[in-house]
Design brief:
The protein is mostly helical and 451 residues long. It contains 17 helices and 2 strands. It has one domain. It has a two-stranded antiparallel ribbon with strand order 1-2. The longest helix is centred in the N-terminal third of the chain and has 33 residues. The N terminus is likely disordered.
């Protein structure tokens, strides 16, 4: 009995350990299932690295692949990938919400997760209610997206209805969980100008990327924006800016590119620009354009969009739009010489600022260090190396086409980046929040020279 009580105390004291262990176990189980002979179209099971890479990409809802999902895996293998995507997306959302509950009970309203849900935004009651809400919203949005896609595949492309249903469900789950796995060799390039395919998928990606705290609050207060919490306001405003800004940027850069938007008519260019520049860099790896043929300036712009990612406590990756917004307002306040950081008539706590800075600096270190490794040990240039590394760390899944040709050590590095990128911000933020303590004294103050 004493041992059990000690385990419970340890478990609640360090909830991030539960998340990391759960994801690691899911990856191991998924890898073993993908190595079964029946999961691969060719005789024999998949190789260890291919299975581990695919399982990690699915559980971490990234979308990077070293083999063609359509031709390499059988129906069983594709079903395993779909299950891993759902487990990874649902698991991360559930644990993000649970962490909010654990921290709020332990530390009250002062404790928040920088890159996760804000307690007041979630309006959390019992854990069961939170999990039930996540499940309901997930299944509802996935079902709506799957229905729209199924009808389009069946009626518009004459797919047999069983095949249309499978395509609809697979891409809906992959989209809502921001995974980016597709059952076509060229991903979604064949549907670049089809709004009945691209818009439902983009809708699901954006909804999953907003995060459950925001979705829950919008459900309660959609028509009362003045009562929205600070977290919801930051997420919606910042997401809107990145969606519109990314769309305009990619559309403008690629407008005359003969390998991407050039041959399309104006409506097609606008749709593809929104899909590829606005929605997908929010950490969903679908592509309706050939990423490898895009302008290097587009890659750099997408690097920024991928690095920031979506909102906290959702299916998106990156450092999160809330983290980016916090640092942006910190800079704004410093430039104006203000003593406090104010956002939407609310003062930002100093702990939140430090947590945001920590998350960003650790993310920059991981991306820069991995990019250097790519450039030193391969002949891949800076543009493609940075894009691949950022895509893996931000759990996006977009690629310039080099993933499958990378040497084994670099593929293993991408596996590590996907795992760290998916769990790193949550574990760091929760660890920082749980380690907060009241200092009973202050040391003498001194200012070093800055700049």
């Amino acid at each position: 009995m004493v041992a059990r009580s000690g385990w419970r105390r340890l478990r609640f004291r360090h909830p991030a350990q539960v998340v990391v262990t759960g994801f690691a176990v899911a990856i191991v189980v998924g890898s073993l299932l993908l190595m079964l002979p029946g999961a691969r179209t060719d005789p024999g099971g998949a190789e260890v690295l291919q299975a581990v890479f695919t399982a990690t990409s699915a559980v971490c809802v990234t979308g990077l692949t070293v083999v063609d999902t359509q031709t390499y895996w059988t129906g069983l293998g594709q079903a395993v990938i779909l299950a891993l995507i759902q487990v990874g997306g649902f698991g991360i959302m559930t644990f993000a919400s649970l962490l909010g509950v654990l921290i709020s009970r332990r530390m009250g309203l002062r404790a928040r997760l920088t890159a996760a849900a804000e307690t007041k935004t979630l309006g959390l009651g019992e854990v069961r209610a939170v999990v039930a809400g996540v499940v309901k919203v997930s299944l509802l949005l996935e079902a709506v997206t799957a229905l729209a896609l199924t009808l389009r595949f069946g009626l518009g492309y004459d797919e047999p209805w069983p095949r249309a249903v499978w395509l609809g469900v697979f891409h809906a789950v992959s989209a809502f969980n921001n995974a980016g796995f597709a059952l076509y060799t060229d991903n979604l390039m064949g549907f670049a100008t089809d709004p009945w395919i691209c818009l439902p998928i983009a809708f699901a990606v954006i909804a999953g990327g907003l995060g459950f705290p925001v979705l829950f609050e919008l459900r309660r207060r959609l028509l009362r924006p003045r009562r929205w919490s600070l977290h919801t306001k930051i997420v919606l405003w910042t997401s809107g800016i990145f969606l519109s800004g990314g769309t305009v940027f990619i559309t403008a850069i690629e407008w005359s590119n003969p390998a991407t938007l050039g041959p399309m008519d104006v409506p097609g260019k606008l749709l593809a620009g929104f899909f590829q520049g606005g929605a997908m860099p929010r950490t969903a790896g679908f592509n309706s354009l050939d990423i490898g043929q895009m302008n290097p300036a587009s890659w750099l712009g997408m690097d920024v969009l991928m690095f920031v990612g979506g909102a906290s406590a959702g299916t998106a990756g990156g450092i999160k739009v809330t983290t980016f917004a916090v640092l942006l307002f910190v800079i704004y306040a410093e430039v104006r010489g203000e003593g406090a950081v104010n956002i939407f008539n609310r003062r930002l706590h100093g702990d939140v600022q430090r947590q945001a800075l920590t998350v960003v600096l650790l993310a920059v270190a991981a991306v820069v260090g991995s990019t250097v490794v790519f450039m030193v040990f391969t002949d891949i240039n800076l543009d493609r190396s940075l894009f691949e590394v950022t895509s893996a760390f931000a759990t996006v899944g977009l690629t310039t086409g080099i993933t499958g040709d990378l040497p084994a050590p670099e593929q293993i590095l991408l596996v590590v980046l996907m795992f760290l990128g998916r769990l790193g911000p949550i574990t760091v933020a929760s660890a920082l929040a749980l380690r907060q303590r009241v200092r009973m004294y202050d040391l003498p103050e001194e200012r070093p020279v800055i700049g």
